[in-house]
Write a structure and sequence with these properties.
The chain is elongated. Helices cover 35% and strands 13% of the residues. It is built from 18 helices and eleven strands. Oxidized coenzyme A binds next to helix 1, strand 2, helix 4 and strand 5.
């Protein structure tokens, strides 16, 4: 038995944001029916193709544990099939451009009429407001949600981050809204609309930067490196390089081999509680009692000097040696791990976070499994479906169509 067993998802999602959400629902045990345009399917199937003729990794890595049904929902017989699907599903998840579902004839009002218990969950770029009609992609959301303006170095342009906080981040937010709505439906008997705008999701993840925006009104942000460097603050939260977001100063420092290996770095936090251990480790025991270095406020204007000294030490060690030495002393450090290193890390393979999957068109590939571990709801990662692989099976077994009816829907060009 799995957490969401018995829950049926009408998955109208495409690209990344929506599919990450429905993939999680599938991992939690829901029956996810992905509806795709006949002959075309989710556009990502054919984006960033690395194996000619096979579904791309972009698609396969976002669509595990789903069944694929091709359906032209603008066609009259396709609409009839969709109505039947809405009747028997618990949740409809979509991330079409604003207005697309209304144009298709399936507004929230219409969906409620067909199935009052339906939870209709949407990702949009923006919530209600001046930009609500815009189409939005990952980096647009990162920029509009405050991440880009606060990422990067002070003397450089805004930067986007590799973590897909706009798409996958919003998919996570949506997923949480869906399971909460399912729980509420247990008591109310009613479905509801769930909306996760990408701008809002990114801003939620940038919460600490809005914190700093308000702190700025009361004086400079002393834990930011620019404070110690004597660079005045402007009127908005600045880009903070690799400074840590909390009150404990941190930086990314070079480790042995950095000249040849772009990932030979470690994150190093000068946690106040372990300052004395840090002084001993880096060979500066005198800093334990020197009033210019002994307390966190005294160190703030000297962070470049402090981290410079720590880096002299980290450059004599590999990033893993730094970890081995500092961890037992509770000094918070973290090696910068490359995707190559993560892909072969045995513990991630054992925990099911990095999984090898076999696919009929492309053979074996690696994917990220479910990052949420539940003791009573184990996850088996099942390869993504081929386009329309389950069309007949769903029409017959889930919707109760006879073989003759399926032939006539196919002849009409709706599947
Ligand atoms: N049968 C028939 N028509 C279908 C269909 C089906 N099974 N599935 C989709 N369509 C139609 C839609 O109804 C729409 O038609 P209209 O434009 O005539 O209403 C059309 O296909 C295109 O859909 P779309 O506008 O959603 O797709 P797009 O490629 O033009 O835009 C995107 C993509 C992602 C920008 C847009 O969907 C969007 O803004 N979504 C919300 C935000 C979001 O999720 N962004 C993240 C995406 S990941 O980076």
């Amino acid at each position: 038995m799995k957490a969401l067993e018995g829950i049926r998802i009408l998955d109208f999602t495409h690209v990344q944001s929506g599919p990450t959400c429905t993939q999680l629902l599938g991992w939690f045990g829901a029956d996810v029916i992905k509806v795709e345009r006949p002959g075309v399917g989710d556009a990502t199937r054919k984006q960033l193709v690395d194996v000619e003729g096979a579904d791309s990794l972009y698609f396969t890595m976002l669509n595990h544990n789903k069944r694929s049904l091709t359906l032209n929902t603008k066609h009259e017989s396709g609409k009839a099939v969709l109505e039947r699907l809405i009747r028997i599903c618990d949740v409809m998840v979509e991330n079409f451009a604003p207005g697309a579902l209304d144009r298709m004839g399936f507004s929230w009002e219409r969906v409620q009429e067909i199935n009052p218990r339906m939870i209709m969950a949407s990702v949009k770029g923006f919530g209600p407001g001046p930009y609500e009609d815009c189409k939005v992609y990952e980096n647009v959301a990162q920029c509009a949600g405050g991440a880009a303006s606060t990422t990067g170095f002070l003397d450089g342009p805004p930067l986007v981050t590799g973590a897909q906080i706009g798409d996958s981040g919003t998919g996570l937010h949506l997923c949480l809204g869906i399971v909460a709505a399912l729980y509420q439906r247990e008591r109310s008997g009613r479905g509801q609309r769930v909306l996760a705008p990408m701008q809002d999701g990114v801003l939620n993840l940038c919460r600490v930067k809005l914190r700093d925006q308000q702190r700025l009104e009361h004086g400079p942000l002393k834990e930011y490196s620019q404070y110690g460097e004597g660079i005045p603050f402007g009127d908005a939260t600045p880009r903070a390089g690799n400074d840590s977001g909390g009150g404990q100063p941190g930086r990314i420092l070079k480790c042995r081999g950095w000249e040849d290996d772009p990932d030979s770095y470690t994150y190093f936090i000068t946690q106040a509680a372990v300052w004395e251990s840090i002084c001993d480790v880096i060979g500066r025991p005198e800093w334990k009692t020197d009033p210019d270095y002994a307390t966190p406020p005294a160190r703030l204007p000297r962070l470049n000097e402090v981290f410079g000294a720590i880096e002299q030490w980290t450059m004599t060690k590999t990033k893993f040696e730094v970890m081995d030495i500092c961890n037992p002393l509770n000094i918070p450090v973290g090696p910068i791990l490359s995707m190559k290193e993560l892909s072969v890390e045995p513990s991630l393979r054992e925990s099911g976070t990095v999984v090898e999957v076999d696919h009929p068109e492309r053979g074996k590939y690696l994917t990220v499994g479910c990052p949420i571990k539940m003791s009573d709801s184990p996850v088996d990662v099942v390869r993504s479906p081929l386009l329309g692989e389950h069309t007949d099976e769903i029409l017959r077994e889930v919707l109760g169509y006879s073989d003759e009816e399926i032939v006539s829907i196919r002849d009409a060009g709706a599947i």
